[in-house]
Amino acid sequence: MELPEEVTDDLxxxxxxxxxxxxxxxxxxxxxxxxxxxxxxxxxATKALEQVxxxxxxxxxxxxxxxxxxxxxxxxxxxxVQRLFTKLA
Length: 89
Known about the structure:
By secondary structure, the chain is an all-alpha fold. The protein is built from 4 helices and no strands. 7% of the residues are buried.
């Protein structure tokens, strides 16, 4: 499945942000910060990572609808992309 360059750039930007959040959580643990503060940051990082997946699947669904033959030939028929979506949901 081909993702547009702007989508790939957006996904990479989001993942770098999540990476920073995870490093921050690790630092919070090392500093002995309050559990509720750490859980709040874990929740934020989890939601941000989920958004990466949803953005990728949304772009993939659009690609499959616009190019059904190419998508199927590359191993991503519409039903497969739908299954990937349900894994995230």
